[in-house]
Amino acid sequence: MAWFTKTRATTDASEKRTLGLGVFRRCDECGVTLKAEEFTENLEVCPSCGHHYALSTEAWVELLLDPGSFDEHDTGLVSGDPLLFNDSKPYSDRVRATRKKTGADDAMMIGSGTVEGRPVQLGSFVFRFMGGSMGSVVGEKIARMFERAADLRQPAILLSSSGGARMQEGILSLMQMAKTVSALGRLRDAGMPFVSVLLHPTTGGVAASFALLGDVNIAEPKALIGFAGPRVIENTIRQKLPEGFQRSEFLLEHGMVDIIAPRREMRATIARVLGHLVG
Amino acid sequence: MAHLEFEKPIVELEDRIRELKLYGVREHGFESELRKLEERVSTMQQEIYDGLGVWQKVQLSRHPDRPYFLDYLERIFDDFVELHGDRAYSDDAAIVSGMARLDGRTVAVIGHQKGRTTKEKLRRNFGMAHPEGYRKAMRIMEMAHRFRRPVLTFIDTPGAYPGIGAEERGQSEAIGASLLAMSRLRVPVIATVIGEGGSGGALALGVANRVLMLQFATYSVITPEGCASILWRDGTRAADAAVQLKLLANNAVDLGVVDEVVPEPAGGAHRDPDDAARLLGVALRRHLGELSQHDGAALIDGRYAKFRAMGVTQQLT
After folding, report:
1. Cα(B192)–Cα(B288) distance, rounded to whole angstroms?
2. A135 and B311: CB-CB below 8 Å?
3. What's the predicted TM-score (pTM) here?
4. Which of A240, B64, B118, B157 is paired with A250 by a 20 to 30 Å CA distance?
């Protein structure tokens, strides 16, 4: 075969990414290319610039709780379709497909465990499940977590990362804000602390309910935290937003969060706070 | 008077009747024609309002002539003393609050206020509150709690304001804190959605023992425009989104979010504000009478149980 008739080996873009994956990884923030393990071993934080990438719910549980102490509660609680919502695909199909794809029941995981030997109730959003949006299941699980913490007289820790209320459950999603916050009130009556951990991003109905009502609010560096999304604000006021607007550092400056803790220090920070507030 | 597209035939007929009444006196046989026209108006009104689509009802909830909080306040209550300011930053005119009397009994009244004229709309920011508005509301609620006065709220907002100052001063925290404060009040709380119940900014005044909704009000997690732009990247498909969102009063009752739909005069509250206020007053008095039988602990527990039960989930086995 003559050289000029040879068909070129075809590699499409997705293949290129796959080839590189597991070997090298480029930081979108600072552009440095490092071995992929260097990111994973550093808890998904860029070793060069310190940019925090998302850590999975499971990895967070492992990071914060004492090894083997986690006992997950209320598994198998799944969403209904009260509105029979249908955009391009029925909501019930969307949820079923997302459950299959993510291996999660919905966007919230709750359970008990210990932090440096101290029993706590822990909840964490599952961002990969429909952007961590809060519908009936998320609200129900958070309410149960606060109630359980109040009954057992244990602190509650909740890791938020969510775009807000889940549109597809309409007004019932909105009501989860009232339900979760009311349950937080029970925890306050029980005299137990709520440590709210704000991860990137925490916006909308999740920000505007329990997420900023922690006795102590701890944010990760540069997390986007706010009521309205930046695009909504830009469209409303018709001007560009300043650099760093609605980031953790902005919230600290404006008195909305207590502490910004890098991922490596999160566990120790929570443990110290609980040490001051409990027992 | 401003008119929606589907209101035009009715308004035109009504104008014709008015003209006849003014000038027709001299002509012979005008009375029978007048009667015929009046009958036509009433059947046409019936037909038009029975056949309204979801989007037309959304438009009614935002009707420029729709009565606002202050219109109901002056018709239902006496001796209103407005109380201003959050004691920290400023007075937000998008929320009006104070003490007033209902049949001689003092209650705290708090509501969103949109504003009628352009100037007033700007001053009240179209009923979109900033954090200081919610903090003012909270201050009045907590005062009512201390002096054992029931709290009546009136919801009518497109949503809490999404702006730079609102974020700087903690819009999220203010709304969350208001939800918490309302859940802990030891007095009867009645919330009524009188127009637009827009998302968190509406719910911040909505954690009540009884939640009422006017017949042509809406209550939604997101505006139809916002929903359409997220779903289809096309805000002009708001009417389609409105259908999906199930944001009408009867939907809210079916979903267990609202206790009672308060009927409006034929054609909507703006067609007869006095009668709309009378109907709302009747409902408020009845619910307040019922709630006044309960002590503080029962009111808190009742409110807790009410919101705790909202939502639809299934347990897989």
Report:
1. 12
2. yes
3. 0.94
4. B157
Query: Which of A76, A85, A232 is closest, CB to CB, to B162?
Result: A232
Chain B residues close to A256, C-beta within 8 Å: 170, 172-173
Q: Do B9 and B158 fall within a single domain?
A: no
The whole-chain average pLDDT of chain B stands at: 94
Q: Which of chain B's residues have a Cβ under 8 Å away from the Cβ of A204? A: 200
Question: What is the span of the domain harbouring residue B34?
Answer: 5-51
The nearest alpha carbon in chain A to B220 belongs to A171
Which segments of chain B does DSSP mark as H helices, in order? 8-23, 30-50, 54-61, 69-76, 118-123, 131-146, 164-168, 171-183, 199-203, 224-231, 238-245, 249-254, 273-291, 296-308
Same domain as B118, residue B36: no
Per-residue pLDDT tens over the stretch A111-170 = 999 999 999 999 999 999 999 999 999 999 999 999 999 999 999 999 999 999 999 999
Quote the pLDDT of residue B40: 87
CB of B187 within 8 A of CB of B145?
Answer: yes
Structure tokens at B16: 């014709």
Residues of A in contact with B203 (CB under 8 A): 174-175, 177-178
A27 DSSP 8-state letter? -
**Number of Cβ pairs closer than 8 Å across A and B?**
193
A 136-195 residues inside an 8 A Cβ radius of B: 136-137, 139-140, 143, 165-167, 169-179, 181-186
pLDDT digits (tens, 9 = 90+) for B222-269: 999 999 988 888 888 999 999 999 999 999 999 999 999 999 998 899
- Whether residues B292 and B148 share a domain: the answer is yes
Other beta carbons within 10 Å of B142: 15
Please count the residues of chain A.
Answer: 279
* Count of domains forming chain A: 1
